Amino acid sequence: MRTAAGEGAVVQGDGPSTATATASFVPVVVMDRPVGRDAEFTTFMAEAQPLLARMAWLLCGDVHRAEELVQQALVRTYVAWPRARGGDPLAYARRTLSNLRIDTWRKHRPETLLPPEEMPGGLAPSSAQQHAERDALVRALLRLSPQRRRVVVLRYLMDLSEREVADDLNISLGTVKSTAHRGLEQLRGLLADVAPHPDHATPSRTRKDDR
């Protein structure tokens, strides 16, 4: 949920009930009287952290590195909180996390997927079949180019609109559309090679309309 401008404005919204929720915004309440930067950011962090953890894990496939990326993104968001809270703080944190991932893309050895019990909270599958599909999906994502992977993750797995992806990654709407199309086609081809039931693991084209 985007923060409304002006004193006394209250922005309300339902937070995600699980780590796999596809909500794009986190509510931030702006009070007439200061509640303290730390208290306000703590409320935001409690809502945003599961969503950021899911995004980071999908981008790198390693839960420990994902935790590091989320921590760094939250620290930078906290430092820039006066500016971040004036717009969409979750979008700011997503952009920061995505940029951090690109900064470290070539500085580490290839990621190694961890067993399901070590996945971020809420992501552990409930069956061996689900684990196999999730494993195949993330391994296929690791084979996409950085740009395609970011677009596919944000558009189809985080369920952002094309406009939100363009804003998050600072690219044109046309680039989002073409990259998403090519990335999804490549991902489907990769999944067809490694997954017994690719339709169960492949992101759908049908997502919320672009805003």
Describe this structure in words.
By secondary structure, the chain is mainly alpha-helical. It contains nine helices and no strands. Helix 5 crosses helix 8. It is globular, with a radius of gyration of 17 Å. The N terminus is likely disordered.
**How many beta-strand segments?**
0
Secondary structure tally, helices:
9
In whole angstroms, the N-to-C terminal distance is 14 Å
Average pLDDT reading: 75
Largest sheet: none
Structural class: mainly alpha
Global morphology? globular
Beta-strand residue percentage: under 5%
Helix content: 55-70%
Evaluate the radius of gyration.
Answer: 17 Å
Low-confidence stretches: 1-23, 105-117, 121-125, 197-201
The H/E string reads HHHHHHHHH
Topology, pairings included?
Elements: H1 37-60, H2 63-79, H3 81-84, H4 89-103, H5 128-141, H6 146-157, H7 162-169, H8 173-194, H9 198-201
Helix pairs in contact: 1-2, 1-4, 2-4, 5-8, 6-8, 7-8
Describe this protein with a few key phrases.
0% strand; 57% helix; 211 residues; single chain; disordered N terminus; mainly alpha; globular
In short:
The protein is mostly helical. 35% of the residues are buried. Helix 1 packs antiparallel against helix 2, helix 1 packs across helix 4 and helix 6 (146-157) packs across helix 8 (173-194).
